[in-house]
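Appendix B: complex inputs.
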Amino acid sequence: MMDLSPIKGDTADQKAAFDSVLIANRGEIALRVQRACRELGLRTVMVCSEADRDADYLAAADTAICIGPAPPGQSYLNKSAILLAMKLTGAGAVHPGYGFLSENAAFSEAVDQMGAVFIGPRADAIRTMGDKIAAKKAMMAAGVPCVPGPDSALPDDPAEIGKIAAEIGYPVIVKAAGGGGGRGMRVVHDPDALSDAVLVTREEARRAFGTPELYIEKFLEHPRHIEIQVLCDNHGGAVWVGLRDCSMQRRHQKVVEEGPAIGIPAEAATFVGNRCVEACRQIGYRGVGTFEFLYENGEFYFIEMNTRLQVEHPVTEMTSGVDLVRQQLLVALGHRLEIEQDDIACDGHSIECRINAEDPYTFAPSPGLITGVRLPGGPGVRVDTHVAAGYRVSAHYDSLIAKLIVHAPTREQAIMRMRRALDEMQIGGVSTNLPLHREILQDPAFAAGGPDIHHLEKWLAARGAQ
Ligand code: MV4
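Resulting structure:
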């Protein structure tokens, strides 16, 4: 077994040694993290809410404890309950998964203060990226290409705002510094609508994010959503692991993701990947992260950085062969990354379909008892799921029940493989979006590759109208 003792001379993170990890999440990602811990010989502590008590993945942990009632605020988002669980179980580290506390700077800090390890970046990096203006400032300073517009907050004076917008050129988009993921933004097509848009967005921002700060950018009308996975250790090791195309989304929820992002020249990808790595070095970034870009007319425009492991990370794992969760754990232990940039290549093509317990037409959640599960298999098929027959899908959490990921030598073969895997897969007892995915995989525009961020919603509207 590999030696997980602290590295001598590792002054960057003196407390890095831990032999048990508390997994502060649920569902498929809790299982994914648990698997990586096991392979490193780490003891696992799983926490759960009362709604998740009977989940199979809890039995596989070394320790499982219930930390509160079903509503996330009382369990998976309850910092003091999770910190207490860490004390009670002697967990030396906590993995937050995605969602919940994964991008919560105060939680990261509290974990630090109790002398344990938050498996993720330091609080200051989370805070910087959570403030979309600070993030843009840091990225522009590091030479990462950004959307045209100032890297500072909008002033109050309407005349000044008007000048800034005119300089950028319409259409523009007004965004809340505290927003992100599609929340707190407004497109403005002409100067007459600008000051009202600013006022309304400012009030929304004040209420929703606790800060009225706004910024303004050129609005890109038909971009693709391309993201770049990075991975950094505490010893100056930093790599970009590949690009993903996540343009197939509805209401800011990704539906299908794939990698690599097709139609992007290798030199362009390498250039922007290297800029991301350089930015990570400049801010002393640690762990996994994702740089989100809009891509239009051959140019990349940074929009946000996610400081967590993402739902779609398996796409990059399949094409790179890098186990991102394993690297996350090693970095948290104070180790160096097991790979350097020159070791990383993109092999073949990967596609992920998010399988949700929801109506495939209305998207209404479909909680309830799963009565039967038939999982696909065979070459190049991966299913990340925590569900099986007898599992009850709770109405308290998001409806993701499985991620179906395929890998094949070419995109065409990956599409054929995904169609085949979707045909094999069956879930009984609840409605799922499997029928939707089967239709999407027959969409000629998807098959052609490179649809923009509006394609899926337009396609859904046309499908509804037929
Ligand atoms: C934009 C944009 C166009 N121009 N920014 C939405 C989510 C948040 N991460 C940023 N978003 C956008 N920012 C500029 N300057 C269009 C979107 C956008 C979007 C981005 C990615 C994926 C899906 C999207 C759907 C609608 C709008």
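Residues 266-283 form the longest helix (18 residues).
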